[in-house]
């Protein structure tokens, strides 16, 4: 695909190696030290990693397109094209309008009490245990209970939602030996979306049923309308689970930041943005280049594919001084953890609400957290996450 002479600094980082997946920060630093755009020798891809360059590219959706898919793998893209994430305006805007409704700031308020009461219960449970795994036990709870119920896929869909989401993210990058499992899970999701019985089994008041109904009313074939559910299935769980897990790890290892937050809850909103900036859950997606163009000093050829590295841009010192520090009072405005431009995250209000309720419930009860063992990274080619964060909750 990228046949032209390389015209960016070459970088030897393998973006999808186990080492980079486990600790992407070191890779981001190496890439950024070479320039805002680099050529990844191991992955045969240009990568945009500078903050200003990434923002301008994401905003330029007519040149940097999503409609041919945002995976690095074109055979995977063929399976995903048409979802809101993998489409361009005007089709993108039509599907986004339908699926965004329950996630808008106005509508999301109606689920606050539900999420908050679940968060209070969860915090009580964890505090009474005293020692728990913040990544394995705490972080998945709200997404796997409330969010799965709100989406309302019925029992089969509910049981498989997490593995379908993880598989979709795996296949956005290079999953190596995990590819076969991921492909099988994605095919299973496809069968679910294509099965006419699926529509009958959706919960009566769930977001999935609402979206398919609106899709059909707007003239879509039922099979096409069923595809709308992808907006809630693929990106809604792992992303938020990752951010909550990292939040817990960061607060346990920076007790002074936790104390500051407990003293001044007005910092909560910015603390959530700082967690998503520092340990950006979606490391990178690609864009298809629809015409010859230039970013910084690099010329991109029409029909090539470019990696947009959200995680690196969020650690660009030109935008975020001392970028590796966790500082809940830093200026986080402009971070790209939730994306930028027309494809900016559809579910960010829900993700923020889950974190807000949970961290506030914990701050009401816990003076500080201490790590009681090693932090273990998760494994996914696209989602940066933690598999284990063992902590003890110290209450006064
Ligand atoms: C901390 C949690 C989350 C993070 C960090 C996150 C991150 C992102 C990012 C970076 C994008 C932009 C992708 C691109 O430009 O190609 C995006 C898009 C998207 N997100 Fe999220 N997300 C989160 C939670 C959620 C949730 C809870 C949902 C659904 C309920 C969701 C649904 C979507 C959808 C459907 C898109 C595609 C939007 C479009 O193309 O217009 N996300 N997300």
Give a brief outline of the structure.
This protein has 396 residues and is an alpha+beta fold.
Written overview of the protein:
The chain is of the alpha+beta class. The chain is globular. It has a single domain (10-394), classed as Orthogonal Bundle (Cytochrome p450), CATH 1.10.630.10. Helices cover 50% and strands 11% of the residues. Strand 2 (37-40) and strand 3 form a beta hairpin. Helix 16 packs across helix 17 (255-263) and helix 18 packs across helix 20. The structure holds protoporphyrin IX containing FE. The site of protoporphyrin IX containing FE (HEM) has 28 residues, from helix 15, helix 16 and helix 20.
N/C terminus separation: 60 Å
Here the CATH topology equals Cytochrome p450
Describe the main β-sheet briefly.
Answer: 6 strands, mixed
Radius of gyration, in angstroms, nearest whole number: 21 Å
Notable characteristics:
alpha+beta; binds protoporphyrin IX containing FE; 6-stranded mixed sheet; Cytochrome p450; 3-stranded antiparallel sheet
Write the layout of secondary structure elements.
Elements: E1 10-11, H1 18-22, H2 24-34, E2 37-40, E3 45-48, H3 51-59, E4 64-65, H4 74-80, H5 91-100, H6 105-108, H7 112-129, E5 131-133, H8 134-138, H9 141-151, H10 154-172, H11 179-194, H12 196-201, H13 207-217, H14 222-226, H15 230-233, H16 238-253, H17 255-263, H18 268-278, E6 285-289, E7 293-295, E8 298-300, E9 305-308, H19 310-313, H20 348-365, E10 368-371, E11 376-377, E12 386-388, E13 390-394
